[in-house]
Structures are given as structure tokens and as C-alpha cells.
């Protein structure tokens, strides 16, 4: 008895269509999670030193002395808390990119840096 030579192609086609449905459903779920503000992301840190070490120290040095970016040891004597927060959120020039720190953490970090005089 001869088998139909199209059966393997039919099985592959059905598996492909099922895979596309599964990947589409997973992608839609991820898109919705992103649209909802990424509820699965980490909560904002409340320790300004941790925020600095995780986001800023690679450019400004672990001890605020500067590396690729300027020193921040006396940044509080140059800028107010609000000005520092604006720089953290919106960036400054080409060297300081915008949006490295979420707004909640930017406020905590700016308050801490404003005390550096």
C-alpha cells in the first residue's frame, strides 16, 4: 500500500500554523505588559547611592570624581535639586543621555546630589 506523499507536508504546515498562533499570542501578551507600564519591572530603589552606582558610576566614577563624565563631588553648589533632576531626566548636551533613570529614582538621586557642595 502506498502512502500519500503530501501527508508530511500537511503535518509541517499544521505545526507551522500552530507555532504562529502561539508566538502571536505571546507577543500580544508582552506588548500589553509594556503598554501597561511594565508592571513586571523592578520597583524603584529608594537608596540614592545604589541608584548612582547602578546607573551613573560608569561615567561619573564610583566616588563621584568623574571618569568619562564630569565630577559630581560639588554639583550641589552649581545646580539646584530641580536643575539636577531636569538634567537626569532630559539629559544635557550630547554626553549626558536622557532617561537613564526612572522619574521616581531621578528625584531621589537629584536630592542626594544637591547635597554635594
How would you characterize the overall build of this protein?
This protein is an all-alpha fold and 117 residues long. It folds into two domains: 1-41; 48-114, Cytochrome Bc1 Complex, Chain D, domain 2 (Orthogonal Bundle), CATH 1.10.760.10. 54% of the residues lie in helices and 0% in strands. It is built from five helices and no strands. The protein has helices at residues 7-35, 48-55, 57-60, 81-90, 103-114. The model has no long low-confidence stretch (mean pLDDT 87). Pfam families: Cytochrome_CBB3.
Helix-strand layout with pairing:
Blueprint: H1 7-35, H2 48-55, H3 57-60, H4 81-90, H5 103-114
Helix pairs in contact: 2-5, 4-5
Protein name: Cytochrome c550
Transmembrane segments: 6-26
Organism: Thalassobacillus hwangdonensis
Summed up, what is this model?
This protein is mainly alpha-helical and 117 residues long.
Task: Give short descriptive properties of this protein.
heme, membrane, 54% helix, Cytochrome_c550/c551-like, 117 residues, metal-binding, single chain, rod-shaped, Cytochrome Bc1 Complex, Chain D, domain 2, mainly alpha
The CATH architecture term of the largest domain is: Orthogonal Bundle
Please outline the major beta sheet.
Answer: none
Query: Can you count the helices?
Result: 5
Beta-strand content estimate: under 5%
Taken together, the total number of domains comes to 2
Number of strands: 0
Order of helices and strands: HHHHH
Name of the CATH superfamily of the largest domain:
Cytochrome c-like domain
* CATH first level of the largest domain: Mainly Alpha
Amino acid at each position: 500500500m502506498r502512502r500519500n506523499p503530501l501527508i508530511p507536508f500537511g503535518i509541517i504546515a499544521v505545526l507551522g500554523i500552530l507555532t504562529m498562533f502561539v508566538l502571536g499570542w505571546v507577543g500580544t501578551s508582552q506588548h500589553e505588559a509594556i503598554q501597561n507600564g511594565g508592571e513586571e519591572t523592578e520597583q524603584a530603589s529608594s537608596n540614592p547611592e545604589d541608584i548612582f552606582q547602578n546607573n551613573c558610576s560608569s561615567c561619573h566614577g564610583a566616588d563621584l570624581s568623574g571618569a568619562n563624565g564630569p565630577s559630581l563631588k560639588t554639583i550641589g553648589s552649581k545646580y539646584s535639586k530641580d536643575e539636577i533632576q531636569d538634567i537626569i531626566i532630559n539629559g544635557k548636551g550630547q554626553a549626558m543621555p536622557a532617561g537613564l533613570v526612572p522619574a521616581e529614582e531621578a528625584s531621589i538621586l537629584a536630592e542626594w546630589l544637591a547635597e554635594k557642595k
